[in-house]
Structure formats: structure tokens, C-alpha cells
Amino acid sequence: MEEIIGFIGTGTMGKPMALNLIKAGYQLNVYDVNPMPLEELKIKGATICLSSKEVASKSNVIITMLPNSEDVEKAILGENGVAEGANKDCVVIDMSTIDPISSRKISNNLSKRNIKMLDAPVSGGSWGAASGTLAIMVGGEEDVFERCLKIFQGMGKKIFYCGPNGNGEIVKIMNNLLAGINILATGEALSLGVKAGVNIKVLYDVINASSGQNFAMQNYCANKAFKGDYEPGFMASLMYKDMGLAMALAKNEGVPLLIGGLGHQMYSNIVAAGFGKKDMSIFLKILEELKNIKIRF
Amino acid sequence: MEEIIGFIGTGTMGKPMALNLIKAGYQLNVYDVNPMPLEELKIKGATICLSSKEVASKSNVIITMLPNSEDVEKAILGENGVAEGANKDCVVIDMSTIDPISSRKISNNLSKRNIKMLDAPVSGGSWGAASGTLAIMVGGEEDVFERCLKIFQGMGKKIFYCGPNGNGEIVKIMNNLLAGINILATGEALSLGVKAGVNIKVLYDVINASSGQNFAMQNYCANKAFKGDYEPGFMASLMYKDMGLAMALAKNEGVPLLIGGLGHQMYSNIVAAGFGKKDMSIFLKILEELKNIKIRF
Amino acid sequence: MEEIIGFIGTGTMGKPMALNLIKAGYQLNVYDVNPMPLEELKIKGATICLSSKEVASKSNVIITMLPNSEDVEKAILGENGVAEGANKDCVVIDMSTIDPISSRKISNNLSKRNIKMLDAPVSGGSWGAASGTLAIMVGGEEDVFERCLKIFQGMGKKIFYCGPNGNGEIVKIMNNLLAGINILATGEALSLGVKAGVNIKVLYDVINASSGQNFAMQNYCANKAFKGDYEPGFMASLMYKDMGLAMALAKNEGVPLLIGGLGHQMYSNIVAAGFGKKDMSIFLKILEELKNIKIRF
Amino acid sequence: MEEIIGFIGTGTMGKPMALNLIKAGYQLNVYDVNPMPLEELKIKGATICLSSKEVASKSNVIITMLPNSEDVEKAILGENGVAEGANKDCVVIDMSTIDPISSRKISNNLSKRNIKMLDAPVSGGSWGAASGTLAIMVGGEEDVFERCLKIFQGMGKKIFYCGPNGNGEIVKIMNNLLAGINILATGEALSLGVKAGVNIKVLYDVINASSGQNFAMQNYCANKAFKGDYEPGFMASLMYKDMGLAMALAKNEGVPLLIGGLGHQMYSNIVAAGFGKKDMSIFLKILEELKNIKIRF
User: Fold this and answer.
1) Of C105, C139, C165, at which residue does a domain stop?
2) What CATH number is attached to the domain comprising D47?
3) Pick from B255, B256, B265: which is nearest to D257 by CB?
4) pTM given for the model
5) Is-catalytic flag, B88?
6) Cβ separation A261–C256 shorter than 8 A
7) What ipTM was estimated for this complex?
8) Which of A216, A226, C188, D148 is deepest in the core (most CB within 10 A)?
9) Is the same domain home to C190 and C157?
10) Facing residue for D273 by CB, picked from A258, A262, A290
């Protein structure tokens, strides 16, 4: 059976993901509160719907790609939402990055209505969405994951099955928590090394070949920040949001995150200082200006 | 000219390093406050001396490998020390991990006596020392570094020239600062992920292929802590010492290290709790017991 | 007009508060999911109701004293809740310590139904509730506050008007945030002073007469912890909850709390270690055991 | 026996302290590397000396009031220093705020020469020095303290005997550590309360009457910062220095200071941002500008 796909939320990330599914040969029903991207998708062959309910009623697999928990809950469980229009044997895939606790609440609710759900947040940014190279972390029942694997492969490159509902969100958030801290720790270590008189190229080359090596330094710093480029990449405000999700999960689970809690507040500071839309590596530029140094290749 | 090498400080690290130099064909003059390892070195062909001064008087290149700044200062500048016995055109190489500020003071002092010095701290632990695969980060004049390169190659695999005196220490300490934070951040993220219901293997595999990837997680956790092995590796007390050097440097340079300062105190906590002689990844075990979870493959 | 008072939530705090209102001469209608304390209140003259709705229908002023936001929202806005039974010109007073954001949502909702609300969280603990000496921080319209002042005086000693709805909660939470940090900072400073060889009595007397003086040290430490008494007082788990409310508010307002964020996680650690039901000064005992010292008079 | 007093270090603090001793009827021998204040003291009756040694040779009690450990060590133990000129039965009183570890080293050294020493750092700032109302925290032998009590009373109001050598320094530093954290925590709580819509006067009045009350808020904020006055008071750079002494002591004693470590780095940030010469309450102004709020009466 070829799946008919519904796509709700066709913004910066959702639109290119939907386009890739069309390119992969899928028939798409699309909806967004903003009609603009829908027209573009229509030209490529998608059918525009007037509500999440209508999308659900016409599709086997319904994907949501929305900014936050409230939006997802409303689109799936709210009035004129997915649950109201859902067909027998359909699957709901929420690809938004949201609170795993909320995600599990929604999947529990759908489960009572005999609707299967996967949480499948992505990483790779708008560039990954456009090029179909996203990483996708999936939570839910394994056979449901298997059923949807081909669809995921239409949007991404690295597809990870992470276990029961909510686990996709958790894994993504834990990864981002680590990446976010790594940027901060990298910024601190490099700014001190440079201030103390070491060439940044030397610092980077040695650390990158040693026990301090980390992906965030390689990719967000060496490839961009060290060249004076602080355009995202991964926006500081998004990292602030994701670390906030990590802190909320920590509260829910009673797990102390001392480094995490401080890091979250440091991103709060970065955002409050007006740098939310810059790449998270903007922290290095803040340190540059504070100490009148250059952390540049 | 083949260098005659003096080696002062033949402990856990120094002895195997000295043995490798003998194996590489160098003639060695050795001294330590503890006579035991000296006997073993003598059997392999080294000449035992009775003071640092005597070592210096018989050698062209004098290596020190000692626990802390005070020891190094005493061995080099103190009574019956290296400076008193040093020959014309000799080079002093301090391979201890010490305060870069102290290191620079010592090299300045030697410079006034027309003695060249390199700071050349190592990483790789006692295993790296024994196998001759240490990483060596070298500060000092470049031609002096070139002169000693072959000697370094007798003890290590990755030899990095880092710039003027003190820079070897700084680069090493900045690297360790990062590694130390990465262990803490990794422990927090993984303990939360596991507590929230994700399999550690899944967490690790995804993060290791994503933006949270870092060497410390791969090597100290995946290879050891995840298997319940918390033997060093890199002792928590040494990380506490190295992060203390980073904090002292930060104070000297006026560079704020918020994450670093917290991390340093967290290692203080780990050491105070009696875990100083365990691998720094013991932090994961502390979190395991706190939340009654298993962060194990 | 003498007010007829409804009281919903007659637990550890609510029951003695209700008893004080009866003592002050008020007629009370009471409800709780747990029938036990209701019987005791009935003996003292209160009328037992079977739902929050019934309480509301029989009263002019309805007080809620419940554990968390969800409970308050359910009791006031839920099925068979206060809003369904509320009379014209009644006032709802929520005396629970909850999220100010939730509190404002509830008051906005009631406002649309022409029902006035005050948020009026208390401090002083169960002892203050029993003795009628609570501090009460009130948010809402000033004339509504004036109307209810006599009722507040029946339960507390220090009554503070804090401005519009939600402000009572905010002021209480900000106060507790500070008190919570002061305990942690006091514990750190005193444990170090004692470890370094100073008598605790000397440390306390000097600091208490100097710029480090703070209420938390005087009352939670000098009066209790220094005597080896770690019974609440103010439970560590409640401080963890209140600091969590502060962190949630900080997220909502985009205000960075670096010290607050770390302090919150330190209480998370204390609770995870099994000390949640002890007084928040239990932190001193943890430090005593860590460093094998006595912080005792 | 009336003591003849030597005074070494007649700067911002030392000069008014010396003047108060002259006013109290003492005969003074004075020395400073800077001759300017000496002339003024001469007019008031002091005898100018040309070295610390000369001061010592002419006095029974020698007071040092210098910027840091190195200066104190040099003045007391260095060439032409106090120890070289000291008479039998003299007492050295170091009133500088320095590292207690260094202070104890100096007193141990003097002890071997049969010279008694007290450490007696002060608080109260230049205003307290001028008005003779300093608080003085004294470490050393109790009979030596008794012998010098009248001298202390010539300079200060609250004189605290804190136990053996070094304890005066420790108590002062622990007090300042607490005061420094209290300013940071107060700033965070107040900025959040104000941003969330509470009047600062209300916030202050309630907290000041509740469990969050602290001296630092009352004196540095309410009396100054809330009025837009960020002139010292107590300079941020001095708090950075004192918290640095606390962190060094913590390292020496192996006591973890998580809040302290973060606070120290936050002051490092404040100093790096150029606010070192402002009162430590400048932190509130930084938060005002970050969130575009006013924390003002």
C-alpha cells in the first residue's frame, strides 16, 4: 500500500520537507495557518486542505511540523484537529521538537482512540530539510516505525529508532543539550587560550586531535565562527528553547543538571542581549568583545 | 651532535619515558628523590646522579617530569638545581603539567642565565608513556623545539609546537578543561536520557553520530564507564588539578569561565567525596547511584 | 456585610487556617478530597460540602489552599468547580503557592465571568498557620484586597498588598528564591570557614554583625541546623518546588538567573539524595559529612 | 606601657587609620613607597622613616596595610623589612586583606624569630577608616590580641577576636563571600520580580521583612543602587579579589564552593566588562540594561 501523506505545518522546515516527499512520489494533503507556502506546494502537486481535520480525513499518514507543544496539541487534539478526522489505521507523525512529556501525553491520548503516533524530531536545520539530509530520531512502536521508514528516508539521511513514544524527542534534546554546553565550554577554553597568548589555529589543531575534541567546535566554530560568520547554523534562541526542554524534563524526572542549568541561563543571557537569531557560536564573539581578543583563523 | 639527556623525576610517568629514551639510543643521566626507579634505569644503562645539579652538569638536554610548580622550580632554580650545573648551550625541557604562569617565570629566569627552556607537558597517561605514544605540546623558541624534536619523538607520537614559552602548558590545560567539562555534560545528558526511559546504547549511538559527539564520551565513557570500569584513564583528582590550573590562569588573564568555574567545583566535590583516584568518568557512577539507574552498555 | 467563607483544601496548611477563621467568628463552608479533616472542622462549626461548586454556591468569599497549579485550576475552573457555583459579587482567594503565570490565567478567566480573584500565598509554615501569624502576599485589585483584609488578618500577621493579579505569587517566589540561595551560600561559606579552622560561633557572630548577615542564616541555621536540628522549618523539597516556579517565571520573562539556575539544580540534587523532607538547611549536614567537619554551636 | 606604633602602607585606607591613631595619642613611625601621604602625617606629628626596617627598629607595634600578599611578605620578610629591624617583644599586625594561607606562612616565619603577629583585616571601607568605625577581625594569640585591643579601638568600632593566626583573614573573606553572593542573588530576584510586573518598593519591603532579608540588599541596594547610585561602597573589583581569596582557600582546603565558584566568575565578568571600579551593586544596572527595566525606588 502506498501511503497518502498529510502535512500540517509548512513553514521554514515543513515546506522543504513536504517538497521532498512530493519529489519522492508521495501524494500530499497540506495545511498551514499561513496560506502562502500552500500555494507553492499546490503548484508542485499537493492538495490544499482547510483544516487539520480535513488533512487527516484524506490521508493515511499525517505529519505535523509545528513550533511548540501547544501548537501540536491543538493541531492534533483540538477542534477541527487531526483526531477528529483520522481514518482507521492511520499514523500520526509529529516531527516538531517539543517537550517529551507533552509528546507522550498526546500519544497516550491518541492511543485511547486507537491511533498510532510516532515522535520524530529532526536535526540538520533548514539546509538539511531542503537537501533531504536531515537526521531523524524516532520514538514509538517499532512496527509503526518500520511502516514509516520509507517516508522518513524521503526527508532524511540518518534515521534512528529510539524506542517507545517520546524517546525520539528525548534523544534529540539530550544531544542538543550536549552540543549547547560544548559550544559554551569551547568558547571559554579558546578565549582564555587566545588571551593567554596562544594562536587560535594551534589551539584548535591540538584540541581537535586530543581529548577535548567535539563536533560542536569542529562544525560551528572552525567552519563558521572562526571565520567571523555567526549566521545560523543553529540559532542561539533555538538552543535556548531546546535546553529549556531539557531542564523541564530534568524537573519531571528529578535529575539534577548543574552544568545544564547554568548553560541554559547563559543562553538566556545571550538571547536577552539580543543575539537570539545569531548562531549559538555568537558566544565566542561576545567573549572576543569582552576581552578585546580575536578568536579567528 | 647526539644529545646526552638528563632526566629528573622518574615516577609513574617519568620512568617509562626515560626507558623509551634509552631504547631510542640516548645516553641518560637520571635523578629522583626516590632512589627505587633509578636502580631499574641503571640496569638499562642509565647513569645515576645524586642531584639535579649533577644531572645538568653531565647533560646537554635536561628533562624534568615532576608533580607541581614548586617541585619544578626547586629542581631547576633551587639549591643544587639544574641552573647551578647547567652547561653552555644546554636546553631544559620541563614536561610536567604546571601553571603556565610559573612556567614562564622559570623560563624567564633561565633566559637571563642564557639557558633555553621548553615547556612540554604530555597527555596520554602512564599507558601512553610506556608505549611511547604520548601527545606532547611544546612551548618555547622554534629552533630549540626543532633541536629537540627527535627526543620528543622518542617518547611520543603527536608532537605539537604551540608557540612561545608557556604555550605548551596553556594548550594542554585548555584541552583538559574542555575534556573535563565534556565528561560532566555527558554524564548529565546521559543520566537524564536513561532516567527518562531511553536505552543507553541508543542514546550513545545517536549522540555519537550527531552534534553532541565528543572524544571524552567516546573514550572515557563508551570504552570504560559504560562497561562499569572506572579505573583511570584520567584520574578525577588530576582533572581537578588541571582545571584548577585553568582557573588560576583565568584569574591571571581576567577571563571569566562560568562553566569552567562550576565544573572545577564539581570535581572538587567528586574528590571530596573520596573518588579522586577513580577515572573522571566516576561522575556517571555517582549519577547512577543518585537516581538508581544504570548507564551501562 | 459579614462574609460567609468557603474553604477548599483543608490539609496541613488549610485546616489550621480554616480553624483560625472559625475562631475569628466566620461561618465556614468547607471541602476537601480527603474527608478526614472536614469532620474535625464540622465539630468546630463548619458546614461540610460535597464539591467546590457547592462551597461556592453557599459563600461570598471562597478560599483555595491546594498543592499545585493543576489542583487550583481544577477546583476553580473544572467540572463541579467554584466558577460553576459562584454567586454574584463573590471573591475567590487562592492562597496556594503556584505559578504566577497560571494564577494570572485563572484570574483572567474568572474576570471574564465577572468574578474577582486575589492570589494570596502565605509564608510561615504550618506553625504560622496554626498560630495565625502567617505572612500573606496579596495580588489583585486594591479594593478587593481591602474588602478581604479582615479575613487575612484572621489568618496572618503581616499582610502585604503587592499590586495586580499574580503579584502576590511573584513576590513570594522571589523572596523564597533569595532565601534558598542564602542557605546554599551560607552553607558554603561556613563549611569552608570551619574546615579552615575557625570556630562556628565566631564565624556566625562576626558574619551576623557584618555585610554577610541574612535572615536565612539567623533563623534556619543558628536556630536549628547549628544545633543539629534539620527538621523543617522549610522543607528542601518545597524550596526545590518554589525555585522551580522562579525558574519557570524566568523562562517566561526571558530573565537570566545564573545563580538561581544553579541553586535550583543543587536543591534537585539534595532532593534526589533523599533529603527532600528535611529542612533546607540539610545542605549544611551534607557538607559536614563531605568534609568530616562539624558546623555546630 | 604605652606602645610606639609603626605604620607601613599609608594609602587610601592606611592614611586615615594612621591619623586616627595619632588622634588617639599614639606616637607613630610611618613608611610608604609613596612619600606623599607621609608628609601629611608628618605635619600631624608622625616620624617619617626610610624603610620598613627603620619603622620596626623604632616601634613596639608595627602595622602593615598593603594591597596584596606579595607586598605584605616583602615588607615584613624582605630585604630592609620589618623582621630585620624588629625589637624584642614587638608585635606585627597585618591589617591588609590577603590570602590566609600566605598570612599563616608569614606568622609561622615570624614565630621562628620569636616575633608575634596578628592578622587583622578590616571592613567598612575608606569612610569607616576615616571615621574610626571599621570592623576589625583579628587572628593570633589571645594575649597578643588583648595587648593590642586599645590600638584597634583607636581605628575601629567592632573588634572581633577570631582565634589563631589566619582566622581574622578567613572570617573576613567568608563574610565577604556571602555578601558578594547576596548581591548577585538579590539582583537576580529583583530583576525578575520587576520584569514580571511588581513594583520595586513592594518587592523590597516584603522581602526585607521576610526570609529573603539580607544586609547586602538593605545597604548596598536600598541605600544606593535603588537610587541610581553605583559609586562604591564596595568596589566590584575588590569583591572579585576577595572571592578569589575564598576560592584559593577552598582549593587549599578541598571544600567545594559551587555557588561561590560561579559567583566569582560572575564578578570576573563584571570586571571584564569595565565595571570594576563601580560598587558591586552595579550588577543590578547590568540587569536593568539587559532587560530594559528600572530597579529603582
Assistant:
1) C165
2) 3.40.50.720
3) B265
4) 0.97
5) no
6) no
7) 0.96
8) C188
9) no
10) A290
